[in-house]
Design goal:
heterodimer; A: 444 residues; alpha/beta; Amidase signature (AS) enzymes; 3 domains; eleven-stranded mixed sheet; B: 93 residues; mainly alpha; Histone, subunit A; two-stranded antiparallel ribbon
């Protein structure tokens, strides 16, 4: 067996027990040159891969084969990466536990009765299990990289909005979506991020920032760094044991020479509602294009176009997608638009101001990534939608503000991993990677 | 704010071109009520003179030169519903 055949066999074995793939590559094209030679890269299923089915976890895109690579995929291929397959996710990214998926639910490698988190659940799952060099391309709208990284005990980087091209991404919410990375360690994450980031003329929201090698900044030195501890992130609903572990980690960073002080982000409590209204509003417009005619699921055309499209969408969308289309459409309707959608956008301004004010004084902010450890599937089944949305209380605000964040493993509670969330100002990926690396080194 | 009823959900579903079953309509009506009730929290925030943020940072409009380029892809590659060079759609009325 060749090296690539061996990797594919391992991927298939992992898939049997854990369901982290929607598609596994038939064969791997290798390129022995480049910074990613010999490294397998998995791609979240909402990112287009040439010749490989891309469904975003939705039945309405079943069978869709893109004729092009997303910019991020093109960039990693150029550096010699082996694209091994597409990872499972909540449909279009709509979820926190990867259970809203039309193509299998990934199981947590630490306890298969528990979720990997979402929506990039398959990416987190595979990152833990791959015993070959592997880095995952993931994506976050409101926490979909940080959450699975925390729940699976991996490192997840969500870049500044616009730093990584979204060209070729099947959009959820255009003003919030960010392609990022999940990896086994900070160095892997910095390596892949260095390759996929940087300006792309194909994405009109792509920031005019040059590519940079972030691995060279990882030296473990953080002397003089100012860390802010946002007090609202340690309030109600956050597991006491998680708070303790996070503060222990902060103590370690203090021992390395960082200065630590409490800070307040007064609009934190409003971020969740603002986020969900904006995300659902944008999602409902993005999903308007799926009508079962040009690609993906194509039921028989019957009746007029209203009837035919409504029928295809009924068949192709899962329950959470339907719920978000209804809510998002409602929030943008004449008469409600000002009260919901516009109000949410104004509150978003206040949330961004909170962060901007904090970063005048602090280099990074540190908090727990998730308020709880990965829940069990039978516990998830009992939750009402609003209770699921509440799980995102710690990740939505930085996502709403489009600031970069990284989740690194920070110990275990009841045998399950938890995440330390390091947030930085816009375009300050270098700082958060440095802090994450310093912590990772001293933790060992 | 107007109360969410099953008729509201039916109306929105129609606009969004989404066929819902009776049980979905029932379920969504209650869930929408609960969700919007929780989202009322936003009313507590004073947003007088606050500008809406459509993006996390200010984004400038990007334009390219208006020059024709050859389309690299076969638009019909993923459809079963085609006739010659055209998509075949449902009837318009």
């Amino acid at each position: 067996m060749t090296k690539t055949e061996n990797i594919l066999k391992k991927a298939k074995d992992i898939q049997k027990k854990y369901s982290c793939f929607v598609t596994i590559a038939d064969k791997i094209d290798t390129n022995e040159k480049g910074k990613l030679r010999g490294i397998a890269v998995s791609v979240k299923d909402n990112i287009c891969t040439k010749g490989m089915m891309s469904t975003a976890g939705s039945k309405i895109l079943e069978g869709y084969i893109p004729q092009f690579d997303a910019t991020v995929v093109e960039r990693v291929r150029k550096e010699g990466a082996m694209i091994i397959g597409k990872t499972t996710q909540d449909e279009f990214g709509f979820g926190t536990f990867s259970v809203n998926s039309a193509f299998g639910i990934p199981k947590n490698p630490h306890d298969i009765e528990r979720t990997c988190g979402g929506s990039s659940g398959g990416a987190g799952c595979l990152t833990v299990l791959a015993d070959f060099p592997h880095i995952a391309i993931a994506e976050s709208t409101g926490g979909s990289i940080s959450c699975p990284a925390a729940f699976t005990g991996t490192v997840g980087l969500t870049p500044t909005y616009g730093r990584v091209s979204r060209w070729g991404l099947i959009d959820y919410a255009n003003s919030l979506d960010k392609i990022g990375v999940i990896g086994k360690n900070v160095k892997d994450v910095a390596l892949l991020f260095s390759i996929i980031s940087g300006h792309d003329p194909m994405d009109s929201t792509s920031l005019d920032v040059k590519q940079e090698d972030f691995t060279k900044y990882l030296d473990g030195k953080i002397g003089g760094l100012k860390i802010g501890i946002p007090k609202e992130y340690f309030e109600k609903g956050v597991d006491e044991k998680i708070k303790d572990l996070v503060m222990k980690a902060v103590k370690k960073l203090e021992e390395l020479g960082a200065k630590v002080e409490e800070v307040s982000l007064p609009n934190t409590d409003y971020a969740l509602a603002s986020y969900y209204i904006i995300a659902m509003s944008e999602a409902s417009t993005n999903l308007a294009k799926f009508c079962g005619m040009r690609y993906g699921l194509q039921p028989e055309l019957k009746g007029n176009y209203d009837e035919s499209f409504s029928n295809a969408r009924k068949e192709g969308f899962g329950e959470e997608a339907k719920r978000r289309v209804i809510l998002g459409t409602y929030a943008r309707m004449a008469g409600f638009r000002d009260a919901y959608y516009l109000k949410a956008l104004k509150v978003r301004t206040k949330v961004i101001e909170d962060f901007k004010n904090a970063f005048k004084k602090f280099d990074v902010l540190i908090a727990p990534t998730m308020p709880v450890v990965a829940p069990k599937f039978d516990e998830i089944a009992k939750l009402e939608p609003i209770e699921v949305y509440m799980m995102d209380i710690l990740t939505v605000a930085p996502n709403l503000a489009g600031i970069p964040m990284i989740s690194v493993p920070c110990g275990e509670v009841n045998g399950m991993p938890i995440g330390l969330h390091i947030m930085g100002d816009h375009l300050q990926e270098k700082k958060i990677l440095q802090v994450a690396y310093a912590y990772e080194k001293v933790k060992k | 704010m107007a109360e969410i009823t099953e008729d509201t959900v039916k109306h929105v579903a129609k606009i969004a071109r989404l066929d819902l079953t009776e049980s979905e309509i029932k379920k969504f009506t209650q869930q929408l009520k609960d969700i919007l009730e929780a989202f009322k929290k936003l009313d507590e925030v004073d947003t007088t003179n606050v500008k809406p943020s459509f993006h996390p940072q200010e984004i400038k409009n990007v334009l390219r030169n208006d020059e024709p380029k050859k389309w690299k892809w076969d638009s019909l590659a993923n459809t079963k519903q085609k006739e010659g060079k055209y998509f075949k759609g449902p009837r318009a009325v």
